[in-house]
Design brief:
The chain is an alpha+beta fold. It has two domains: 164 residues, Aminotransferase class 4, branched-chain amino acid transferase, N-terminal domain (D-amino Acid Aminotransferase, Chain A, domain 1); 167 residues, D-amino Acid Aminotransferase, Chain A, domain 2, CATH 3.20.10.10. The protein is built from eight helices and 18 strands. Strand 5 and strand 6 form a beta hairpin. The longest helix is centred in the middle third of the chain and has 16 residues. Bound molecules: pyridoxal-5'-phosphate. The site of pyridoxal-5'-phosphate has 13 residues, from helix 6.
Length: 359
């Protein structure tokens, strides 16, 4: 696809950018450019651009504002030890974007175009890389129904965009282990629903549960399955792993109601590489509590692109709290996190070919 590249005529000043990059936080600041590609039923994908980042004007009848036909992705650009920018398994994001598109009755974007849009954006905004602990440029590709029409059917027009945001560490508390809240009343995804697609609607539906978690002093909410309210599924935006005595690991299976994380997939491979037994098997909330109390469960962590690997120290619910291990970050959790981060940043060998250099 032919991208027209129109550099921002009024980029943020060097000094303002440098100030932002000292403490970028997560999702607060944005780079100078964005990628935009249009789609219509007649023309297919057309008019690919890298342009100055800025507001978009939408008709109040734009379909996404009413029926939420929208999907997104999240990935990071890292700086390797030799100074080159690189992406981690971006082909997996491209493939998942199209899986989400199919579930939401949206057109697929050729994977090569998805990858090119991201690489071109990172290339033009590479000065936005924050040289802070855990720094990255977080990339947010998304697509939404842009036709102005109120009938309920798939839109005939879409806009695909990518924005970029310099990022430091995700959890602002910086706590060594998070506390999570088990939602007894709300569910995230039901069989046959959109739980396996990365769509904004899933997040909208998770917010009241997240509020409930915050009200109980928790950082995140963990959802149980919709049918039996028994099986542990995932957090609002992160997958879960459980580690048992003897080096045995378990993560819930992605059978339609869990988002198949790329971090999850990578952790499974890394763990197996070093001889850990990893099972994708349902795990109930009762087993979780009993195993934590008996000491059989020694570590637990959540994982996803934004926060990478985050230890879970305490699980709270209406039935009372329980602590995993000593309530702090576990040894295997930290080791897996470090291995993954080292590969992402070019500090360790990359035997699976996960890292893609840009330029
Ligand atoms: C994005 C996401 C994840 C994590 O996926 P990664 O590819 O590892 O970033 C997990 N759960 C949900 C619901 C998500 O939206």
């Amino acid at each position: 696809m032919n991208f027209s590249i129109i550099p921002n005529a009024n980029p943020i000043s060097d000094t303002a950018r440098q100030t932002i990059l000292l403490n970028p936080g997560f999702g607060n600041h944005f780079t100078d450019h964005m990628a935009v590609i249009k789609y219509s039923e007649d023309k297919g994908w057309y008019d690919a651009q890298i342009v100055a980042r800025g507001p978009i004007m939408l008709d109040p009848a734009t379909a996404v504002l009413h029926y939420a036909q929208e999907i997104f992705e999240g990935l990071k650009a890292y700086r390797l030890s030799d100074g080159a920018m690189a992406l981690f398994r971006p082909d997996a994001n491209a493939a998942r974007f199209n899986q989400s598109a199919r579930r939401l009755a949206m057109p697929e974007l050729p994977e090569a175009v998805f990858l090119e849009s991201i690489k071109r954006l990172v290339d033009i905004d590479r000065e936005w890389f924050p040289d802070v602990e855990g720094g990255s440029i977080y990339l947010r590709p998304f697509m939404f129904a842009s036709e102005a029409f109120l009938g309920v059917r798939p839109s005939r027009e879409y806009l695909y965009m990518v924005i970029a945001s310099p990022a430091g560490v995700y959890f602002k508390s910086g706590a060594p282990a998070i506390k999570i809240w088990v939602s007894q009343h709300y569910t995230r995804a039901a069989p046959g629903g959109t739980g396996a697609a990365k769509c904004g609607g899933n997040y909208a539906a998770s917010l009241t549960a997240q509020q409930e978690a915050s009200a109980h002093g928790c950082d995140q909410v963990v959802f149980l399955d919709a049918a039996e309210h028994k099986w542990v599924e995932e957090l609002g935006g992160m997958n879960l792993f459980f580690l048992f005595e003897g080096g045995h690991m378990l993560t819930p299976p992605t059978s339609g109601t869990i988002l198949e994380g790329i971090t999850r997939k990578s952790i499974i491979e890394l763990a197996r590489d070093q001889g850990l037994v990893v099972e994708e098997k349902p795990y109930s909330i009762d087993e979780w509590r009993n195993d934590a109390e008996s000491g059989k469960l020694i570590e637990c962590f959540a994982c996803g692109t934004a926060a990478v690997v985050t230890p879970v120290g305490t699980v709270a619910s209406e039935a009372g709290d329980f602590t995993i291990g000593a309530g702090g970050p576990g040894q295997i959790t930290q080791q897996l996190r470090q291995q993954l981060v080292n590969i992402q940043r070019g500090l360790a060998a990359d035997p699976h070919g996960w890292v893609q250099r840009i330029g």
